[in-house]
Amino acid sequence: MGNKLDTYAQNTWCAGCGNFAILGAIKAVLLSLVEEGTLLENIVLVSGIGCHAKIVDYINVNSFYSLHGRVVPAASAIKISRPGLKVIGFAGDGDCYGEGLEHLIFAAKRNIDITMIVHNNRVYGLTTGQYTPTSPLNFKGRSTPAGTKELPINPLELILSAGAGFVGRGTSHGIELLKKIFKEAILHKGFSLVDVLQVCVTYYNMYEYYDQRVYELAEHNPEDYQQALGKIREWDYNQDTKIPLGVFYKKQGPVFEESFPAPQADPVQRDVLIKKALKRAI
Ligand SMILES: Cc1ncc(C[n+]2csc(CCOP(=O)(O)OP(=O)(O)O)c2C)c(N)n1
Ligand code: SF4
Ligand SMILES: [Mg+2]
Asked: What atom of ligand 2 comes closest to residue 52's alpha carbon?
């Protein structure tokens, strides 16, 4: 059954790709937001370059296809200049934990009210299987046939310590949980990051591995920084431990774009401040 968010673009993802779950979940969430009163024209999607990025072709909502590693600055610029819009960025793990990592850190630090959804398949999918910052030690890919010699980063630990007010994780085998986390992240006022363990069936098929290890957080207080940090550290993207899913951290703080005067107060002053902020953000 189609809906008004469908497009005519031909879907070119591989059969079984975890991106389908992210697409299904975000479309359901966007429809529910519209039903609850959000205007579709007040939502903007931003994507990078990679398999994940095609998602904006498949959703009938205003969107901006940015450059590899540049989802965050494009999304930040849109939000700063039009604070009334809901801005949702879709990035790959190569895209925003690799080439664009510094942008992600500074967006979290500034607490810009955007949501970043990371399709973390732990591989460069579009360019056919090179390792990324979240590939595990000894990962054998196109660029590392003998296995990687470096440990992965834990992106959630990094982003939490950078100041993010919302940090969550889901998998592409759990669409109901994805819907829940996406909606909570989008409604959170301030910077939010959702890391999705999105399986790339072609270059790094982890369905079985994740199915055996994931569990949903219970009796967890997301306002408690130390608890959040502890749960985030439970799995380091390398060891064969259990993998917690859910909202690790959620705390409201001052929002970056609200530090500028309202447009009607002093448009000239506001424009000057915004131009300065955009220069810093990009
Ligand atoms: C500035 C720039 N650097 C590198 C590339 C080449 N490139 C395109 S997609 C890609 C990797 C994509 O991997 P990821 O972000 O993890 O997305 P996925 O395809 O896995 O969804 C790279 C390195 C590019 N297009 N532009
Ligand atoms: S290469 Fe991997 S990430 Fe890209 S569409 Fe195919 S399964 Fe999905
Ligand atoms: Mg990737």
From this structure: 3
